[in-house]
Every structure is written in structure tokens, then in C-alpha cells.
Design a protein that fits this description.
Largest sheet of chain A: 6 strands, mixed
Strand order of the largest sheet of chain A: 2-10-9-4-5-6
Largest interface: A-B, 24 and 23 residues
Oligomer: heterodimer
Order of helices and strands of chain B: EEEEEEEEEEE
Number of helices of chain B: 0
Strand content of chain A: over 45%
Structural class of chain A: mainly beta
Helix content of chain B: under 10%
Shape of chain B: globular
């Protein structure tokens, strides 16, 4: 199975900060990576697919990059609505594993 | 927009069985694979299972293989998860999610989840 490792697990930021979350795969997943955001008590929501493609309706302050085993999610200017937990997921091979999550807090 | 509504969760004793359902609407259900993802209390997301568009192929996490069975009824636009031999480690919110393709992919729409508690 492919292991997905996210860092950091918790990140403190202020409104307007640039925030970067890293996701590493235990083997190459090419660019078959998605990012999701989850707020407490809510279902996850898709942000980015195929490593760098922004889902429709997602603000342009979010971006994704990387390929192979190293990926990043960047929020260029974090907004109050962005304080949540972010997860990466590989969908290159079964089982489709998630990273452990990164909580972005104030 | 796609709507996914899970049902069937509840309190069940260890060793028991439960069947979850996920009713889909506003989507050509038979055209997409469907997934189950769970989240234990205070923990992260765990991918559980996927069934391809026709139902012909199924995939499972090692943690549930041999105990859980995913299936679908395309005539009813409904996804199922039969869960047997349940243990406390299966306590979680169970989400169904639509995959982006017929054979897999990322999850572009999610239900609100149904809670499962395994306890005596």
C-alpha cells in the first residue's frame, strides 16, 4: 500500500499569511493526487485534483503543485474561512490512501 | 448538484452486522464509481472501499477486507456497504462519495455521513 505523509500536522497562521502544506507519497503516484478541506462536523470538500487542477468554484488563492512523490498545497493569503483541516489523497493505486491531515488554526 | 444521502448507521454490538445505504440523485449514477470513506472520532479520513460503475469490480482497505462488502443497485441509484463482524475500531462516521470516473479517481461529491457506533 502507498503511504501518504502530510506535514505539518498542525499549522498556526494569521489572516493574510501564505500557507504551505506538504504531502509525500511512499512511492511515485505520478500526479494522481487530490486535496480536500474539512470543517468540523462537515463532510470533506474537494479542492484540487490531479495535483494542480483547481475544482470549479474553489478560490484562486488555493493552488497545488508537485509530481511523483512530493506535493504541496499553497494558500497565498489565508482567509478566516480557511481555518480547517486539509487532507491529501492518492488515487494512483488501490487502496486510495489519505494523508493524516493538516489542521490550519489561528 | 449531485446529492448523496447516507442512511443505516446506528449503535451495534461488537460482532454484529449493519448495512449502510447511500441514495444518489441529480447524477447519472451508473456512469461513476462510488466510494466509502470513514472517519473515527477525532481522527483523519480513512478510505474504506470502492465499487466500479457496473459493480463488477470492488476494492477494499486491508482493515475491512473479508468483513465488509460494497455493492450497488444502479436501477435504484443506491450504494450499499454491508458490514459484518464489527469491532470497536469500526466506530466512525461513514461517508459515501462519488468518484470522478467509472473505474475510480478522486471524490468530487460527498454525502453528509452516517454515524456507526460499535459498543456493548
Amino acid at each position: 500500500d502507498i503511504q501518504m505523509t502530510q506535514s505539518p500536522s498542525t499549522l498556526s497562521a494569521s489572516v493574510g499569511d501564505r500557507v504551505t502544506v506538504t504531502c509525500r507519497a511512499s512511492q511515485s503516484i505520478y500526479n494522481w493526487l487530490a486535496w480536500y478541506v474539512q470543517k468540523p462536523g462537515k463532510a470533506p470538500k474537494l479542492l484540487i485534483f490531479k495535483a494542480s487542477n483547481l475544482e470549479s468554484g474553489v478560490p484562486s488563492r488555493f493552488s497545488g503543485s508537485g509530481s511523483g512523490t512530493e506535493f504541496t498545497l499553497t494558500i497565498t493569503s489565508v482567509q478566516p474561512d480557511d481555518f480547517a483541516t486539509f487532507y491529501c489523497q492518492q488515487y494512483n493505486s488501490y487502496p486510495f490512501t489519505f494523508g493524516g491531515g493538516t489542521k490550519v488554526e489561528i | 448538484d449531485v446529492q448523496l444521502v447516507e442512511s443505516g448507521g446506528g449503535l451495534i454490538q461488537p460482532g454484529g452486522s449493519l448495512r449502510l445505504s447511500c441514495a444518489a440523485s441529480s447524477v447519472t449514477f451508473s456512469g461513476y464509481a462510488m466510494s466509502w470513506v470513514r472517519q473515527a472520532p477525532g481522527k483523519g479520513l480513512e478510505w474504506v472501499s470502492l465499487v466500479t460503475d457496473s459493480g463488477r469490480s470492488t476494492y477494499y482497505a486491508d482493515s475491512v477486507k473479508g468483513r465488509f462488502t460494497v455493492s450497488r443497485d444502479n436501477t435504484k441509484s443506491t450504494l450499499y456497504l454491508q458490514m459484518d463482524s464489527l469491532t470497536a475500531d469500526d466506530t466512525a462516521i461513514y461517508y459515501c462519495a462519488k468518484a470522478s470516473g467509472a473505474y475510480g479517481g478522486y471524490n468530487d461529491f460527498w454525502g453528509q455521513g452516517t454515524p456507526v457506533t460499535v459498543s456493548s
